[in-house]
Amino acid sequence: MRYSALKILREGLTGNKGWKPVWREPEPKSEYDIVIIGAGGHGLATAYYLAREFGMRNIAVLEKGWLGSGNIGRNTTIIRSNYMLPGNEPFYEMSLKLWEGLEQDFNYNAMVSQRSILNLFHSDGQRDAFVRRANAMKLAGADAELADADQLRAELPFLDFDNARFPIKGGLYQRRGGTVRHDAVAWGYARGADARGVDIIQNCEVTGFDISDGRCHGVETTRGPIRAAKVAVCVAGSSSRVMEKAGLRLPIESHVLQAFVTEGLKPVIPGVITFGAGHFYVSQSDKGGLVFGGDIDGYNSYAQRGNLPVVEDVAEGGMAIMPMIGRARLLRSWGGIMDMSMDGSPFIDRTPVDGLYFNGGWCYGGFKATPASGFCYAHLIARDEPHPVATQMRLDRFARGNLIDEKGMGNQPNLH
Amino acid sequence: MIIAHPLLGPRDASEFVYLGDAALIDRPDWQAPDAAERFHAYGYLRDNPAGAHRELWYHEQGDRSWLVVTRDTVTHEISRVELARDAARARGRGR
To answer: pLDDT digit string (tens) for B36-64?
Structure first.
């Protein structure tokens, strides 16, 4: 079924009786060519691009819970490509370009809204760093634009420009950045993959791997063993737990990141605004809620909830830069589990076990990467060689000394 | 989270700085023939368990002692707190 305005009109006039389930719920077969573990955004995107771009058909996506129940349904929905390092920026720019064509590509309304993202700066040194980053972005084909304080005063009069500690001196705009309806991304990719014959199997937890002679032949699951020539792990916060079953230790710690949304308000914040110095970022959803967040809690956690000191810290960050936010009432807060890597950058790579692939280490930046992650992972799985924009996202880069450390923090995951 | 400091009693976790897995106490021998591999594992690879986790917390806003806290990463429940000094000595370290 193809969605269109005409279809909506026809269904509206005939009692909406013609809509069908968006994907099937098949029983798992005993064998597939490719098994993807994790039906989150990245796993579903991988299956979609394997089927659409690389002509693969016999694919299953296994999910221990329900489709899209992890971080794809818990993030703050921001897309951007304002990175600096050559190992990262071309990848994220590819992702942003895929976002721009995504809805037409998979015929699903993901509400991609390029409403801009702004990083504020407060000092000459920070300005210099942002100019450098803007130049790196432009070299990779992305857009970047420096705004001075006068321009921002006109555009965003509600910011506290004369804050005593962090006076706003300007900001780095990426006008093509913005927000996306996050759940619709999972649903759109699931629908597109399902229509191309991919089996999406929910409530099917992987309990082990069938590994012999250094090769992976399939997985054990709560719904029986499934053989596969290639097994691709894509489980974000659960990466260490799943890969441990294959005998691998990862350069990853799992941490909890909290997010918050207020009651619905009239339109007040035009784009995404980030206040890096105070660890606060905010946007306004189409329903009117202010969606915001800050730092990770900072300790290893698999609980999808955080603690109060960070709630207070995020609220203080908001009050410091945007005092009007104090008038809004908080509606909900929640937590998600981030696969924090040792240099703050992700992995899309083969593993020492033949036929076993790994995608993870996305830290708190996995959502914006969803399309390119899926595309590059599909490329790696189908052709056994990395996509040109993802050649540096290797598991062995620490042993080789080729870190991709955007913030220069070193091997301390809770500082990235 | 409240951490029961062995010397100071119950203290709020926000007074502490978190470092990570307490295995970091066991720094590899830099003269070992496989020192490069060991330091790679020491510096970059983590068990990252879901469940009981022994980890290093530094009481920066307090007496600046290092603690080894055993905490459940699924429930955040803290079951044991000891001075890192005592934990290191129990492992045969001189200081």
So the answer is: 999 999 999 999 999 999 999 999 999 99
Q: Which domain holds residue B58?
A: 2-90
Minimum CA–CA partner of B51 in chain A: A302
Question: Strand ranges (DSSP E) for A222-374?
Answer: 226-233, 252-264, 272-275, 280-284, 289-300, 330-341, 347-350, 356-360
Structurally, how many domains does chain B consist of? 1
Name the pairing type of β-strands A252-264 and A330-341. Answer: antiparallel
What end-to-end distance do the CA atoms of chain A give, in Å?
43
Distance CA(B18)–CA(A137), nearest Å, equals 33
**Tens digit of each residue's pLDDT (9 = 90 or more) over A202-228:** 999 999 999 999 999 999 999 999 999
The yes/no answer to whether this complex scores an ipTM above 0.90 is yes
User: Any idea what the CATH number is for the domain that residue B31 is in?
Assistant: 3.30.2270.10
Question: What mean pLDDT comes out for the span A242-266?
Answer: 97
| Residue at B95 is within a domain | no
Please judge whether A251 and B74 are an interchain contact, meaning their C-beta atoms are less than 8 angstroms apart. Answer: no
Q: How far apart are CA A239 and CA A252, in angstroms?
A: 8
Note whether A413 contacts B: Cβ–Cβ < 8 A.
yes
Tell me which DSSP letter residue A323 carries.
G
B48 to A303: CB separation less than 8 angstroms, yes or no: no
